[in-house]
Design brief:
Elements: H1 22-35, E1 42-46, H2 53-62, E2 66-71, H3 76-81, E3 86-89, H4 95-104
Parallel strand pairs: 1-2, 2-3
């Protein structure tokens, strides 16, 4: 039997599929509890426009980190809207090219 959830005032139920749900919990725990970033460090997020990656980048910025996001060419504009310091298009690139782009960022 499912119990009805109490939703905080002003919060839509759909929020529990994003930042208040599994993606938000994964981003929060993975970055803050596992990685423990310090202000001034660089955080590289692959799939930076995905459900978890988009939240990781924002938390990293709050912690004072430099953020580099990686995504496909079709989502570059969206990644920039999320506030990453640098965004890298990984489409069709070799590992060597990606390493060069990451170092340049």
């Amino acid at each position: 039997r499912l119990l009805p959830a109490k939703i905080p005032g002003g919060c839509r139920p759909s929020c529990f599929f994003g930042v208040l749900g599994m993606p938000g919990a994964t981003a929060y725990y993975g970055l803050l509890e596992i990685c423990e970033p310090k202000s001034g460090e660089t955080v590289l997020v692959s799939s930076c426009t995905g459900a978890v990656g988009s939240i990781v980048g924002q938390i990293a910025k709050i912690k004072g980190c430099k953020t580099i996001g990686m995504t496909s060419s079709g989502k570059l504009a969206l990644a920039k809207e999320f506030g990453y310091d640098s965004v890298i298009d990984y489409s069709g690139k070799s590992v060597r090219e990606l390493i060069r782009d990451i170092r340049a960022a």
